[in-house]
Structure formats: C-alpha cells, structure tokens
Amino acid sequence: MHKGIGFWLAKRRLKDPDKTAVVFGEDTLTYRELADAADRVASVLWHRGIRRGDAVAYIGENSPQFLQVMFGAAQLGAVFVPVNTRLAGPEVQHVLVDSGARAVVLDAEFLGRAMPGIEAGRIAQVIVTGDGLPEHPGLARLIAEAPGGHTIADVSLDDPAAIIYTSGTTGRPKGAVLSHGNLTWVALNCVVDYDVVSGDVSLMISPLFHVASLGMGALPVLLKGATLVLEKGFEAGRALALIESHGITMLSGVPTTYQLMADHPAWASTDLSSLRKLTCGGSAVPTRILNAYEERGLSFSQGYGMTETSPGATSLAPSMTREKQGSVGLPHFFTEVRITDEHGEVVPRGTVGEIEVAGPNVFLGYHGLPEATAAAFTEDGWYRSGDLGYLDPDGYLYISDRLKDMIISGGENIYPAEVENLIADIEGISGVAVVGVPDERWGEVPWAVVTLREGADVDTDKVRAHLDGLVARYKLPKNVVVVEDLPRTASGKIRKADLRDRFGGR
C-alpha cells in the first residue's frame, strides 16, 4: 500500500474528479487533470532512469508543473528538492551537488545559473518546463507523450519525501530531510488548527520552494480537496484583484506582503468579504498592520516554526491576537513544545530557555551530515531549535532571542555567517559582523559592521558589488558601517546584541 503523499492526488481523483484543484492565470486544472499529469510525470521520470531514493530537483516559479513534479516524484519514492529561485549560481550549485540530484526540472530562465551545478553534480536528466529548448526536452511535451508502465513504489511515512535547504550558521546551507510523514502531519496540523475546509479557495502568493508555502499552504489545501489559486509572484494590486474576483477565503504571507496590500490605493475599494483565514509567518505582525486589517473585520493566525519542523511548530489563533499580542501561540495539534535550560532540564513556565520541539512533523535529519543531525536532537528525541523563549502560564510561547542570530527579512531567512565569510575576503576588511536592523517594510534588513586595515577604503557599494552574484540579493547588506573596534566577549566572540542595540534605532 502506498502510504506517502504520492497517492493523495489519486485519492482526490476518485473523490472529486471534476473539482477545481488549481487555478493558474487563465488555466484551470481539475483534480483529475492534476492527478493524471502527476502520473505522467512519474512515467517520464521512470523511463528516464529515476528510481526510489533518487533526488529530483526543481528550479522554477510557482506553477502547476511544480506540483506535478513533486507528486510524480513522490509516486516513485524519489526525493523532491525544490530550489530557491533567488539563490546565486554558487548557491544553486551547492544544492544540486550536495543533494546528489539525478534529475533537474527547471524554468528556462534559470538554466544558465544552474549549469555549473548540473555539470559538477550527478544530474543525468535536464528537463525544461513548458515547451523546452532545442537542447533540452520540454516537460509539457513529455507529459503529453508519456508512455505508461511505470512502477509505483511502496512508500512508508518514514521514507524521505523532500530535501529543503536551510542556511546554516557555518555558512553552507544544510539539506533538511522531510519524510512523507512529516509533510502529512504538518498538513493535518493546518487542517485542524486553521480549519481548512473543502470549500476554501486559497491564494498562493508566496514561492512554493519555501517550506511554509508548501507544507502549510499548498499541501493542506490539496489534502482537503480545496482550490489553490497559484501566482508566479506577488504584486499587491493583483493580489487584491484576485481576492475579489476568485472569492478567496484563505491567504498566507509575511508581514511585508500584508503591509503592501494595506498600503495599496485599491485597498479601500476592494471587496474582501470572502476572506476568512489569514496566516502570517516570518516575524510578528506590526500593530499598524493588525489595525488596518481589523478595521476590515480581519484577524491573523500567527505562528512559529522552521524548516526542520516542516515548518509549523506553534500557531496563535485570531481570537487571541490581541490578548496574547507578542506570542507565537500554542503548539500545533500534533506537536509539542518545551523550554529547557543549558543542562537540558525543563524549566518552569515564565523562565527563558531553549525552545525544543517534538512531534511527527519534526524532520529526519540533515542530508549527509550525521554529526549535525545528532547535535540537533536531545537524547530523548526533541529537536533543539537554537532559539530562546518562554511559555506563559497558559502555555503560550514567546520568542526572546535567536541563539543563531538569524535575520528574517521579508520572510526570507538570512544567516549572518554565510555573508560574513564572503565579506571577510574583501581586501582591507579586518573584521565583520552582519546584524539585523529593524525596517518598516521588510521587518529587518542586514547591515554589515566592519573594521578596516590602516589605509583601506571600503563602502556599501564595494561590499554589495563583491557579494552580488555570490549570494541572493536579499542577503546583500543594506548598509555598511565602519567602526574602530567590534565589541567582543572575553573569549573573542563578537557581541552582536551590542551591535543590534547600537544600530537598531537608526
């Protein structure tokens, strides 16, 4: 019996064959059409040598083909590797090589950026979405001409389903291995806690390569047999128009997207009466945005999580948005959260400690990194988030600080070490620390604080020019500040909290 996510569409084809599954621009796919296409993708991959356990990478904007490839790979027991389209060439190469991908499906516009990774890795099949290119077959044609006779693997919930790359504190992204069970249970958590129903129409304005958009956005909707309206990207005016024209009931995003919609000239005149559920992640929703949406009768579900928890760990119900403002909520229905001290002992409520998470949505480990995997878990199997927080008397979680110094800018995770390692290579720089500085639009943005060797001349433009093409543009420092000395502890570690305090008010 096939127990993985690969059988979901076949079940939906039986139960709701003519129900609209996906809307993409002017195109509409029923559950029968989506399931048939996924079957054909599985056939295409099988006849091109992809087998159980092989990694299949995908580099492309939101489209039905993203879902078709993911579910098609899942039918074979292959492992889906969605690649962030904003990554620079060297970052893409790392993902393709590290994952050991045997095939890559990608939009034509990303072929040039992906070629170094394709040539350096184990990739034997390159397929281009749409009609393809002279040198590479098009997925649309392959689906149309797909032969039958592929094997559907017997997949268990414990088998790997996807590898999602998350930036690491050491500067190299790590591949978090998510099982079929992880993706199933995180979807069930969302169905329960966000009350997803089959009549919902969900607008997806965030990239599906993000684990939140996939695990907590698309998958619960498809599991429940609701309708997913896919957008290639986000534009505030178009999002408002789609809400009105499609009768959107569900919307997920980050504070920046909600702010841009509220600030758009069409905000006041758009009919938002269909909206029932707004979910927001990445960072806390500012009071100004809460006010703007509450004036329209709308409230948010906010939450906390990470790639390693597929990603949802907690959620704050809309009814508690004001009473528990500042909290990220209660643990999801099938998930548990606890707070421990430096010795691993559970601390009383109200005491700050490390946030640990357990449940069937917690990942299997880091691909090819047994030591990092072992370090990520406690002896009794809880995931160590590396974040500090506390539980209030009612069990609601509050985030106090990030041990890993992660910056969240417009919903994108930035780990300073990755950027710092590259800035340190610039001639004339003797020391560097990258910290997050509050920003009204993006929540926070990276600043680089540097010290210089005598006679050196380094400015923001020089640093950004050096980094451009090496990392995604959202990781480029918005400002470079030169200081005489970086504050350090007795052991020589830079005190980033001091830098955030110093520059955070600017």
From TrEMBL:
Annotated PROSITE patterns: AMP_BINDING
Keywords: Ligase
TM ranges: none
Gene3D superfamilies according to UniProt: 3.30.300.30, N-terminal domain of ligase-like
Domain of life, per lineage: Bacteria
Domain annotation AMP-dependent synthetase/ligase: ranges: 15-367
Domain AMP-binding enzyme C-terminal residues, every copy: 418-493
GO molecular function: ligase activity
PANTHER family hit by this protein: ACYL-COA SYNTHETASE, MEDIUM-CHAIN ACYL-COA LIGASE ACSF2, MITOCHONDRIAL
Family: Belongs to the ATP-dependent AMP-binding enzyme family.
The protein's name in its UniProt record: Long-chain fatty acid--CoA ligase
